[in-house]
């Protein structure tokens, strides 16, 4: 990851957040004696919100933080635009330490660089959709004409044309969150912070909004930090996922990493119910040609279906149905490995790692 | 030390005299000795109250009645306008000089409410922002609301003298607390996630106050204004003891002469005035949603006039029409 360090748009460096009157003492105790969440609460009457979180989000990447309620993910995201001050650690936005910024610079950063979407929508009920969307430009003192033009563009991109003079409570929940999204992108910020934006919506609307968001995000290439409690959503949307538990980032990796190599039982529990068909690739479950031939003797691979290492289990399944033979995985015509029917079944079930040995 | 012999443990309070009443009487002396400083300020305020009074009385009653009905229609709708119209007609019919007296009382109430608003709103905002200040303010407000008016009547008169200004001051002391309380309550009651969103989009504390908190707290603040108006009216009889004219004075004089008829006329006048002011100020306090999200200029007589004078779209306010244009 060292290669991308210059590219990191958001960088969190050992961020701690402890809530309570004696936060500093509690922090020392936790760092030196490694107190648990409960011990800290009992001894110092402090709540550990975030525990030593370090991660980077690269330019244009969608980084999902997934965790259950109370895991500290909403607390963590509020550090990125300094709505919450960290107890220890530093947050860098494009290389600038935002904890050293003046209030004035910070306000400029929030209005121009960072857009935020909230789970509760948090639209201003006394303002029309247009006035809500134009808010961040209004506080920067942009002219009415300019900010309305930008706001109308944002409203158009979330497909809410014609609703701009309505008030938020005249809109449905899904439409309100579209307004929230439009408000976040109206000032064309380079960073989007999404705090469980779709959690409060019903499944169908959630799906629709995810699609809208992904289409927008593909088009606009914004660096996005996306909070969710829904692993399906994280896998659907995220380029990389961080799993958070009790304030700790337990594992950071691509969706495939997380699903195939869960770091601990907690993560494994989470991913148990996730379908591997689309996530796991042939390269992950294949048995190297050498070990296959050692086991079965030289194989005649003519007539075997061929696949690319990047292809998903879903594709392999389709190939496998049509034939009795195992599938050979090739790169540039050179055989790399073999996927037997057993290995394929085991891969779908989720035991990708022990394919070779067990077969 | 001498007290010790006569000190009775079962009844300790009768044998201890700290002389609080005497030292508190010093307030009166202080007030008298500082009168000269107060006089110029008093003069300005007095002229202001008199100016409001004379202008209200200068308007012919019929015109004034129509004006008040129109204001009620604008602020609270046609039904309230009818109630206000009927109530004001009754007020005028109570006795030949009831209308003029009511206008004088209205002038005092307006002056008191305006001053209350100017003092109360900033104090309420401060109380909402600062817990310590709110805690310190609360006993003061409790005192202002519960202490009998007669207690501060004397020091105020000693300091300012009798007349309109001390009437207004006495009224303010009693009528100010609900406005401060409800302003603070309204601002504290603003949805914190909306305030957080405003912060996340770069609003300064000042912008958050004026663009988010005050607009959202407006219904509560106007409920405070309504309460302040009602409490001001309830003070007019007491204020008339320090030579404030108007309906209250009628009641006071009738009481002195045991003239029940005149007292009823004055009392009913105050009640009718209260009903009128209550309905109008409550109408202003309605939230946007209750009004169906129409702007104030879209309803009532102004809306009617606008619709008649220009070919306006009924549902879209002029501002929205203007802002909707940059659509591309």
TrEMBL record, chain A:
<dbReference type="InterPro" id="IPR003439">
    <property type="entry name" value="ABC_transporter-like_ATP-bd"/>
</dbReference>
<comment type="similarity">
    <text>Belongs to the ABC transporter superfamily.</text>
</comment>
<dbReference type="GO" id="GO:0006970">
    <property type="term" value="P:response to osmotic stress"/>
</dbReference>
<dbReference type="GO" id="GO:0005524">
    <property type="term" value="F:ATP binding"/>
</dbReference>
<dbReference type="InterPro" id="IPR027417">
    <property type="entry name" value="P-loop_NTPase"/>
</dbReference>
<dbReference type="GO" id="GO:0031460">
    <property type="term" value="P:glycine betaine transport"/>
</dbReference>
<dbReference type="GO" id="GO:0015418">
    <property type="term" value="F:ABC-type quaternary ammonium compound transporting activity"/>
</dbReference>
<comment type="subunit">
    <text>The complex is probably composed of two ATP-binding proteins, two transmembrane proteins and a solute-binding protein.</text>
</comment>
<dbReference type="InterPro" id="IPR017871">
    <property type="entry name" value="ABC_transporter-like_CS"/>
</dbReference>
<keyword id="KW-0067">ATP-binding</keyword>
<keyword id="KW-0472">Membrane</keyword>
<keyword id="KW-1003">Cell membrane</keyword>
<dbReference type="InterPro" id="IPR003593">
    <property type="entry name" value="AAA+_ATPase"/>
</dbReference>
<keyword id="KW-0813">Transport</keyword>
<protein>
    <recommendedName>
        <fullName>Quaternary amine transport ATP-binding protein</fullName>
        <ecNumber>7.6.2.9</ecNumber>
    </recommendedName>
</protein>
<dbReference type="InterPro" id="IPR005892">
    <property type="entry name" value="Gly-betaine_transp_ATP-bd"/>
</dbReference>
<feature type="domain" description="ABC transporter">
    <location>
        <begin position="30"/>
        <end position="271"/>
    </location>
</feature>
<comment type="subunit">
    <text>The complex is probably composed of two ATP-binding proteins (TmoW), two transmembrane proteins (TmoV) and a solute-binding protein (TmoX).</text>
</comment>
<dbReference type="GO" id="GO:0005886">
    <property type="term" value="C:plasma membrane"/>
</dbReference>
<keyword id="KW-0547">Nucleotide-binding</keyword>
<dbReference type="Pfam" id="PF00005">
    <property type="entry name" value="ABC_tran"/>
</dbReference>
<keyword id="KW-0997">Cell inner membrane</keyword>
From TrEMBL, chain B:
<dbReference type="InterPro" id="IPR035906">
    <property type="entry name" value="MetI-like_sf"/>
</dbReference>
<keyword id="KW-0812">Transmembrane</keyword>
<keyword id="KW-1003">Cell membrane</keyword>
<dbReference type="Pfam" id="PF00528">
    <property type="entry name" value="BPD_transp_1"/>
</dbReference>
<keyword id="KW-0813">Transport</keyword>
<feature type="transmembrane region" description="Helical">
    <location>
        <begin position="105"/>
        <end position="128"/>
    </location>
</feature>
<feature type="transmembrane region" description="Helical">
    <location>
        <begin position="55"/>
        <end position="73"/>
    </location>
</feature>
<dbReference type="GO" id="GO:0005275">
    <property type="term" value="F:amine transmembrane transporter activity"/>
</dbReference>
<keyword id="KW-1133">Transmembrane helix</keyword>
<comment type="similarity">
    <text>Belongs to the binding-protein-dependent transport system permease family.</text>
</comment>
<feature type="region of interest" description="Disordered">
    <location>
        <begin position="309"/>
        <end position="328"/>
    </location>
</feature>
<keyword id="KW-0472">Membrane</keyword>
<dbReference type="InterPro" id="IPR000515">
    <property type="entry name" value="MetI-like"/>
</dbReference>
<dbReference type="GO" id="GO:0015871">
    <property type="term" value="P:choline transport"/>
</dbReference>
<dbReference type="GO" id="GO:0015226">
    <property type="term" value="F:carnitine transmembrane transporter activity"/>
</dbReference>
<dbReference type="GO" id="GO:0043190">
    <property type="term" value="C:ATP-binding cassette (ABC) transporter complex"/>
</dbReference>
<feature type="transmembrane region" description="Helical">
    <location>
        <begin position="80"/>
        <end position="99"/>
    </location>
</feature>
<protein>
    <submittedName>
        <fullName>ABC Glycine betaine/L-proline transporter, inner membrane subunit</fullName>
    </submittedName>
</protein>
<feature type="compositionally biased region" description="Low complexity">
    <location>
        <begin position="315"/>
        <end position="328"/>
    </location>
</feature>
<feature type="transmembrane region" description="Helical">
    <location>
        <begin position="149"/>
        <end position="176"/>
    </location>
</feature>
<dbReference type="GO" id="GO:0031460">
    <property type="term" value="P:glycine betaine transport"/>
</dbReference>
<feature type="domain" description="ABC transmembrane type-1">
    <location>
        <begin position="102"/>
        <end position="281"/>
    </location>
</feature>
